[in-house]
Design goal:
Elements lengths: L1 E7 L4 H18 L4 E7 L14 H9 L3 E5 H6 L12 E3 L2 H10 L3 E3 L2
Parallel strand pairs: 1-2, 1-5, 2-3, 3-4
Length: about 110
């Protein structure tokens, strides 16, 4: 099974849409059951996981298709965000960079648009 971790740290909707398109394409080409995809978000990108995000509906759709989307809790603290501020479909990790390192150690390919 292929394993890919995407890492988004920007709040630019163009990068978000590109990343979400890449994830959808991976699932389409490889088959949903043949690839594990995780999107790790920290830094300025954290705002795009808020309830009112312009890409919120696309994030929810990605999660519904089996893509794991996680927010960095350390970044959330820095931005004074709580889980109540965030999309209900996402998950959380203590540190985004730590999560990326752990995924790479576990054999995940690293992609950052």
């Amino acid at each position: 099974k292929d394993k890919v971790v995407f890492h988004v740290t920007t709040d630019d909707p163009k990068y978000w849409n590109q990343s979400l398109n890449n994830m959808n394409q991976l699932q389409k080409v490889l088959g949903k059951d043949n690839v594990d995809i995780e999107l790790v978000v920290n830094g300025f990108g954290i705002g795009m996981l808020k309830m009112e995000s312009v890409v919120g509906n696309r994030v929810d759709e990605a999660v519904a298709k089996g893509i794991k989307v996680v927010a960095c809790e350390e970044t959330m603290r820095g931005h004074k965000l709580t889980k109540d501020d965030m999309l209900k479909s996402i998950g959380y990790v203590p540190g985004g960079v730590i999560e990326v390192i752990q995924k790479q150690k576990a054999g995940y390919a690293y992609l950052k648009p």
